[in-house]
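Data availability (excerpt). The following record was deposited with the supplementary files.
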Amino acid sequence: MLEKHSKVKDICAKVKKNSSVLLPFGIQILLVKNENAEIPNFIEIEDEIIELFWKGCPKACNFCKKSDHWKSECPTIKAKEDLRKSKKNKNSKAKDPEPESKADHTAEKNEVPKTAGMSQPIPAKE
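Predicted structure:
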């Protein structure tokens, strides 16, 4: 796939810095770019979209696979985070008990609150 754009010199697995531990993801490819060739940000291998990053590469998001922003600026991720925060806020508000009104604290147990047209409270029947 990369041969259209460059000559592959070496391929190796990524290694954890300052150790010989192989990482379970990612590979490093050493290539020599063909003159006047444009290296794409993404290539497709066996129905999988693979992102390519190199020093000085144009912006490319490895989350949504678009070439106009970095992952840290991804509007898709931001929308998901906003939705999650919105749901979390709704859930926390639903769990908070409503404060009781002052009338609830001052009313006697056996007393019915006054309504329009009533001059005296009527004791509740037990």
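Summary of structural features: The chain has a mean pLDDT of 76.
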